[in-house]
Each structure stands twice: as C-alpha cells, then as structure tokens.
Amino acid sequence: MSISLKFPDGAERSYDDGVTPLAVAEGISKSLAKKVVAAKIDGAWWDLTRPLERGGKFELVTRDSADGLEVLRHDAAHVLAQAVQELFPGTQVTFGPVTEDGFYYDFARDEPFSTDDFEKIEKRMKEIVDADLPIVRTVWEKEKAIQHFKSIGEIYKAEIIDEVIKPGDPITVYSHGDKWGDLCRGPHLPSTGRLGKAFKLMKLAGAYWRGDQNNQQLQRIYGTAWADEKQLEDYLHRLEEAEKRDHRKLGRQMDLFHMQEEGRGMVFWHEKGLTLWRTIEAYMRRRLEKAGYVEVRTPQVLDRVFWEKSGHWDKYRPNMFVCETVEGETLSLKPMNCPGHVQIFKFGQKSYRDLPLRMAEFGACHRYEPSGSLHGLMRVRAFTQDDAHIFCREDQIVEETARFIELATSIHEDFGMVRDHIALGTRPDVRAGADEFWDRAERQMLDAARAAGVEPVIAAGDGAFYAPKLDFQLKDAIGRQWTCGTIQLDYVLPDRLEAEYVGEDGAKHRPVMLHRAILGSLERFIGILIENCAGAFPLWLSPVQVVVATITSDADGYANEVAAAMRKAGLRVELDLRNEKVGYKIREHSLQKTPVIAVVGKKEAEQRTVALRRLGGEAQQLMPLDEALAILTKEATPPDLR
RNA sequence: GCCGCGGUAGCUCAGUGGUAGAGCGCACCCUUGGUAAGGGUGAGGUCGGGAGUUCAAUCCUCCCCCGCGGCACCA
Q1: How far is residue A504 from each of residues A84, A508, A514, measured CA to CA in Å?
Q2: What is the ipTM for the molecules in this complex?
Q3: What is the pTM of this model?
C-alpha cells in the first residue's frame, strides 16, 4: 500500500504506507530534517515519528515557524515538569500550556517554590535535553488512564481525564524515555534533545486550579522558549525595551504624577501631568461639542437610597466607597455616572424631538478595586471617564452607534493609536432578557458596525449581562493591545429609573441608553499614551513643548525675549539660563523628552535667530525667530484645529 | 483578595550580627563653555512599621504595611 502526500508547494508524491514524517523530511534534505519539529496532515497535528496512516495535504513544521515554536514551547513545558518532579518529589503536575512568548506549567506542591530554585531547575532541564530522551506517544483507554494517574498520585490529571475527556475519545500520553510521562494532546518532538537550550524560566506566580478562585491555589512557573539563542536574546532585549516605556517609571522621571501609599490607586497629578490632562480634555470637549453632545456634571456623593434605586447597591456594593455622616445618613461616592445622567434626562419633560440626546461628562468615579489588581495609571480607584450616554429611540440605535464608531475612530487616530479590531461582545451565559431581545440587539450592533464600514470580530459571551457591546481594540507602538472605547446598549437602566419621553403619538415611551466612552478613563489613557510614545509626546500634547537654552550668559536677555515671544504665540516654554554647558543642557532636556530645544548664543542674539534641535535628531535648524514661531505654532496646533 | 519576590539617601542600587556606602541629583564655589555629562567642596538616612532572639539587629525570627510579577476580579 502507498499513500500520497500533497506538499504546500503543490508537489504530490507517494510514499509507502506507514512512513513517518521524519523519514519524509530526511528524504527531502538533511537540513530540513534537522529543523523540522512536527507535521500536519490535512491541517491536523502529527508527530514526526508517528507512522502516517493516510495521505492528504501534508506540511512539515519547522522550529522557526510560529507553529513550530508552539511545539517547542509545549515540549519545554514538559521538560520543565519532568525536571521539577525529579528535583521535588511529591509535586503533582496539572496543566502546562503554551503562551504568546513561551509557556507555563502549574504545579501542586505544599512547599512554595522560590525563584532561587530556577537555576537548579534550568540546569536539570538542560540535562534532560542533553540526555536526548526519546519521546514516545501511547494511546490509553479512559478508565485505565484514570486508574493509572490515580495510582501514581496525580489526582489533578485523573480529574482532567475524568471530567474533560469524553468517553471513547482516545487519551494520549507522551513519555520521555522510561523516566517520565504526561497526559497530553501533542504533538511533541521525537526526543528531548531536539528542544535545544534557548529557553529560560521567567517568573513564579500563584494560579487557581482551573482558573477558579474557590479551588486550590497552584504554583505556576513561567518560561520562555525559542528556536535558537539569538531569538531568545532578542526576546529578552524586547522585554528590556518595554520596561523602559513603563508609564510608572516615565511618569516619575518626567515629573508627570506620583502615587503614594496613603492613597492606593489614587493619582497625584503634578503640573506637567495635569498640563497633558488638560490638553486632552480640551481637545475632547471640542470634539464632543462638534459631534452634538452636551456636557453636564453630576454629584460626587449620593445617598444610599439613590443607589438602591439604580440597582448598584445590590449588585455593585463591594466596589463602592461608602461613607456615613454624623447625622447617620449612608452615602456613596459614585462608581458610575449613568444613574446621574438619567436624573438630568428626567428633569422636566422630554419629547421625541429632544432625541437623540447625547449627554457627556468628564465623570470622576471611585471604585474599590481589589488591591492586587491596582497597576499604575492603568487600574486605579479614582478615575475620570470620558463618559457619555446617548438617550434615543430604538430606531436610532444603529445610526447613533455608527456615528459613534466614526467619532471614536477619528479621535483614536488623532492620538496616533492604531486600531487592531472592534470586538462585538455577544450574549453571556448569565444574562437578562429573552433570546429574541438578544437576537435583535446583537443584530443592531452588527448593522451599526457595518454601516460604519467595520466588520467586528465576534467575542462570544463577552457582552454585558443586559446587552451586547462593541469594544475598540487598539494596538500600540510595540504591538500590545489595549481596549479603549466601548459602546453598550442598555434597555434596563432607563426602565429601572423610569426615564420617559413623549412620542409623536403623544404617549409616553422609554428611551434606550447607549453607554459610551472613547478614551475609557483619562488616567488609563494617559498611561497608554505614555507607553505608546515612550514619553516622547507629539508636540501638541507635550507638557513642555520648547526649552530655550542659552550657551553663555551673554544671551540671557535675548533668550528671555525668545521665550516670551513663544509663550505669546501659545507655546508651552521653559527657559534654561543655568550656568552649564550646552551639551549638558541638551542631554538633560533630551532625557526629559522635550520635543524642541531652541539654543541661543551670541550669534543668534545678534542675528535674531534660533537654532532648533528636535528630540531624537542631531541636526540643527538655524532660522529667524519669526520663522521658528510660525513653524512651531503650526506644528503645535491640536489635530482637530489644523 | 490569593501565591511568589522585594522595601537601604530625592532617584538607581551595593553592603554588613558591632547603628552604612556608590553613582546621579541637590547646595555652595570655580568655570562663560557652540549641540547628549567641565572641576571642586558639602549637606542629606528612624536601613518600610511593630514585636521577639541577642551583650549588641539595617542584617536572624514572627506579625503588619506598601511596592513589583502573576492569578482571580474588571455589569
């Protein structure tokens, strides 16, 4: 018998039945056989040493491909598990998948691991690689497998097989020589030697068994693994680079803000940080006004009774900052702006002619977030949302949503953020409302996205419990994704708080509410902006736009004139008259990420010119002061005013 | 909230069972220098907080607080 394999380049060749992918690779070239880690037959994974059972579309997966890396990392996880079990007898294995940059493995062990153990574990892993143990795949029957894992004390594995694998489905176990084996779907390398040594253990963390807080806490060891040493080094270098853009670090270095322990999750905005904030806020106000929004402001603290009516007291209480007065009232800081906006909507009568009513607020909210979730500006307890609620009729939902998508897209672009995709969060398992409602609501969101020329990616089950939503996924300069901007449909709150408008028919109707934000929170968005540009803000956003630096004190008088002229032209300017060398001043302001340094010395003073030096460049642009003013003010104009 | 790691000068970090150091920054002095660090001098610390062991604790033990990395959470 022979089988026919169809290769990606279109070639088709026949082989003897039972040939292994490794043998096929060897038949093609020696170097290919060296690089190959697994195969795919009609898209399904196949181990290199497992005899092929049928022909079809055939692909050899090499270690430097994305698929190949996945195989390597999976093997790295197994080698890690073997090393750990050999070094720490009594440790149980649970689950060890591949991640974006590497892998992890969750272990159950009474004593804690320490990062000090990493060296020892890595050493043993390398010994296992050197031993080049053959990796053997065996197929088990469910009951037998459960018994086997129970008998060797691996209760977690037994539980997975028992609960996750359907009766009759084959169970595969991969063994490293006769020393070690693990339940696994595969595929795996033919032997441990093929893994190579471009791996490193990275960090240690707690994790819950099957991701559930009520379950036992396991110890997770994270690692990274690559096709070769060079790739590993590049990766470690990328991590260092990412660390340099950490907004917490830059925030301190650039004197933008700070946080301290008496106010966990709360931000002290310094002058420069607040300048950034105000620039963004002013820009947003202009954009919202042009887009037909009205701006309001609602109380910071409201009576418990109010939150009971809105439903928050019931559902959101653990996250609310609640306080009591000497007179015995119970109040709460607002965790959200929506109920407040409904009050403004309800004040007086609304007609269908008032709809859609787009009500915006830079709403300062407080939420008691779990201590372990706090993270710089990204996750805080006091934050300001660029919030708005659009009150409209049901037949206006699609148009309003489409308009919002266009507005948000344009704003994100103005901030230099690139969109990856828009996600449509559909009905979650636990939800309010009948299926017909969800069918309609999801349809409306989808239609709206398409009306705005966007095909959303479906995020099944990610909707709010009362309605579907669209989330904007942005991608920053180093490829990380952030959710900025969301629009959620809400039929529940208007009903609960009895919002009404008078329709064309003279009868009272319930409006629909669209909750929406474009930046999310100002705090978080500023954090993202900082990391996106590594602190080097575009001129219009930069807290300090120009530093006028003198060469010698001869130029002090002229430097003052230059700075004054720039300020008059609306630029944010600092003056550096210190008795230091220019080189020193250049270095210091460059490290502060000042976009433009205007150097003035005797020559400039005589000619009434300035020498501009841009951040990141070494060239000097010598030009008359008037010309510099014209160029810089033009460049510093916010994008919506250009 | 849970697990692991950490907390020493304004910042970044070294260090020791006998109460402490560097670089940068800061102050003062000298230097007026043409595009990424000119030189000198000096000030600055409850070694996160509390308790314990010890003749003696920044160091060892325990508790707490905070930070960092994950997990869980994030209508």
Answers
A1: 73, 9, 22
A2: 0.93
A3: 0.92
